[in-house]
Give the backbone structure.
Amino acid sequence: MNKVKVAVYQKAKDGNAECGDSYYYCETENEFVCALADGLGSGVYAKESSQIVINIIKENAAYTVEEIVRKCNEKLLGKRGTVLAIFKIDFTTGSYSISSIGNIGFMTITSDKRQRNIPNAGYLAGYKREFKVIREPLENEMNFIMHTDGVTNKELAENYFFDKDVERITKSYALRSEHLRKDDTTLIAIRYDNQ
Ligand SMILES: [Mn+2]
């Protein structure tokens, strides 16, 4: 049985057929990994660059967050840039790590508080750069929200993010958020519950 539950809401910018955001997640015996990328611009070309990094993550999911970001950066040389966040839960050490380069939002939610992560500035485009990885202990029950910049601050203040059911979080978001999206929008709700 999976230790982590995931639900995803995704919608293209109003008037576009294709959403430029790409994501991937998987759970193995020892860890859970989730990545979200937002290609620069929107539509088909944005999708192309965000899909490049997601494919690298699929093939290298067992590496550390630092190594995965480094590999993605190398492959983007000469391509359009992308913003990217990689999140990992390590069940064996009871910790999670997150690195976000550019404006992919990440929020942790426990029973009494929500906390937003400050991402690294800029984006990945092939050149060498510094980036920080945050490592924190896991609590027994936690929600994690990963989202692209189509999600607004006002929407993130809603109380349904405390819900224990990830499907209900994305459904509430779909019902209560703006229907006309000004940007490609992806919201990933993740729940860890160590019963
Ligand atoms: Mn965007």
